[in-house]
Amino acid sequence: MSEQTIALVTGANKGIGYEIAAGLGALGWRVGVGARDAQRRDTAVDKLRAAGVDAFGVPLDVTDDASVAAAAELIADRAGGLDVLVNNAAITGGMPQTPATVAPATVRDVVDTNVIGVIRVTNAMLPMLRASASPRIVNMSSTVGSLTLQSTPGAETGPISAAYAVSKSLLNAVSIQYVKELGDTNILINSGCPGFTATDLNGFRGSRTPQQGAAIAIHLATLPDDGPTGGFFDDAGTVPW
Fold it and tell me: What is the pTM of this model?
């Protein structure tokens, strides 16, 4: 990678995203803290800097074309390039989400953030990633998006979810398409599941800490050049599609 590895973490002002930024920053990397809420973003950057992380704020609404384009320009100006992109920003859309009752607008909003937002950000950052010596893309997915687990009797996949779980299945599918398109490049692209982590996304009901949830993203962001690409992983290993 470059002399100082540059990373962007979306949704990095709190929870798992913040801990991903903190973990990568602890390696000596320069980390862009992507977030749409200015106050929370500034607070996160200040906290990271106080801990010794070379962090900078990146105003970023993954659902807005102009915001994403401006974020790419800011990173190019402030950091001179990008080596690692962690697509972490996501929403649940609220529960319950049974398919017979979910509002189509809810599905649309969740997919816009969790899937189209990833495409939007990835495409904006690709020119810089292509120029990196060892680029990585990490898409934060979930085992609830595993069609294998969802169709396995007795498998723990959380509540019926016609928006959030479906968005993660779609994200996994999109990730594979990127792997196929970029197979002749040195960009390693993988999906990671943080596990059932206590964050405001689930009302802090999770059994894992945000630090534990961030571990898989940090692992995939720091893969060696001969590391895997096109995989779906959690802390225990490979997750079935």
Answer: 0.94
